Protein: proline dehydrogenase
Organism: Nonomuraea turkmeniaca
Amino acid sequence: MLGQLLLAASGSGLVRRAVSGFPLTRKVVERFVAGETAGEARAAVERLRDAGLAVTIDHLGEETRDARAAEATADAYIRLLEALRPLELGSTGEVSVKLSAVGQRLDETMALEHAREICAAAAANGSPVTLDMEDHTTVDSTLGILRKLRDDYPSTGVAIQAYLFRSEEDCRDLAAEGSRVRLVKGAYREPSSVAHQGKTAVDKAYVRCLRILMAGKGYPMVATHDDRMIAITELLADRYGRTIGDHEFQMLYGIRTDRQEALAGAGHTVRVYVPYGDDWYGYFMRRLAERPANVAFFLRALGGK
Ligand code: FDA
């Protein structure tokens, strides 16, 4: 219930202005967001690298229908990738892109061109790009753009949301040689006509999708903080003869850092999703919605405790 309210608030301009106005909000946001500038993102990436973790970096921004804002987002990614180049991160330094932030709702061709520019800058670092998945109305368009990008940049990956009814079929289509699929439970408020509702149904759907990806020939990126899903991944890896380097785990910046480091210490590739930028509101509200304990943390900090 609280989660649903927070997800609704994540799309509200009024609540955005109220929450952003609190002076202490920034202190709390820092737990989940690596900073506002490319320099701060780079510093966070260096800390994670030194702890043995790979990264995927997200320049925060939500949907835009303004061509200049879309171009500014693409430029921000290109500048970020230039700033990261001296670190020589290669495949451990990828970026994640929300197509709606580079104009997907305004003009799909424009979004594809911006995504291509970002892929080219990432390729110059030897790094791949993964497309985030947003609400269900964008899935066909995102998968269409993925196919076009993969013609020139075959390592481009995509997030698939287990809660959508369609996702088992999408996983089957994508479980082929060379494809990189990040499996997530799904973070948007979706109607019961398109998505499983409630944790049990979503967890079961996650396991079905996971089985398809682990049995397939692609590179599964298991993005979850859920110990049960991590344990099931390890069982499936045994069953399908996968070794430690042919799949990876992913978690969000600031969430279960002890678990991230323990998995990396056991030899797994663990990639941390590192968001940065000043447009943190939608991302931050989705993280609060996922876990009531995070709301308590937020309220305590607002109270100065
Ligand atoms: P679940 O929410 O069931 O949580 C399981 C356990 O993990 C909890 O009991 C708790 O212990 C811990 N936990 C989970 N969330 C926490 C939090 N916020 N704070 C503290 N502990 C927490 N979604 C999407 O729709 N499109 C996308 O492109 C992406 N991309 C993406 C990348 C990466 C790397 C990750 C890890 C996640 C995403 N997501 C996403 C978000 C995803 O859909 C989902 O909302 C969150 O990962 C939470 O789901 P869990 O699998 O962690 O399980």
In short: The first helix runs from residue 2 to 9. Residues 132-133, 159, 161, 182, 184-188, 199, 223-226, 250-252, 255-256, 273, 287, 290-291, 294 surround dihydroflavine-adenine dinucleotide (CB under 6 Å).
